[in-house]
Write a structure and sequence with these properties.
It contains 5 helices and no strands. With 100 residues, the chain is mainly alpha-helical. It is globular and about 40 Å long.
């Protein structure tokens, strides 16, 4: 079924907190959830991606290849929702990150 706006807002709050967790399984689950939400809701998820994308991009510096691959998938899906310019704008600050 359809996800209403209140449910989506609650999910985004949980994702936001999960992305800040130090446990890889927790933030990996959050990344997978974002990937699914992007596919299921498309443009409805656009307003939330502006705040979530930097948290997700930050995980590109993770030591686990699987996490980096999932982040890359979310970034690719985000381009279709937010546009190339917006995604590049979100990526630029991370180019200076030594973990990349």
């Amino acid at each position: 079924g359809q996800i209403d706006e209140a449910e989506l807002g609650t999910l985004v709050d949980i994702i936001d907190q999960s992305m800040k967790d130090n446990n890889v399984k927790i933030y990996q689950g959050a990344i997978a959830t974002v990937k699914e939400l992007l596919q299921a809701t498309g443009d409805e998820f656009r307003p939330y991606m502006h705040s979530l994308l930097p948290l997700i991009i930050d995980k590109m510096g993770d030591t686990k290849p699987q996490v980096r691959e999932e982040v890359a998938e979310v970034i690719n899906k985000s381009i279709g929702i937010l546009g190339v310019d917006t995604v590049i704008e979100k990526l630029i600050p991370f180019f200076k990150d030594k973990n990349w």
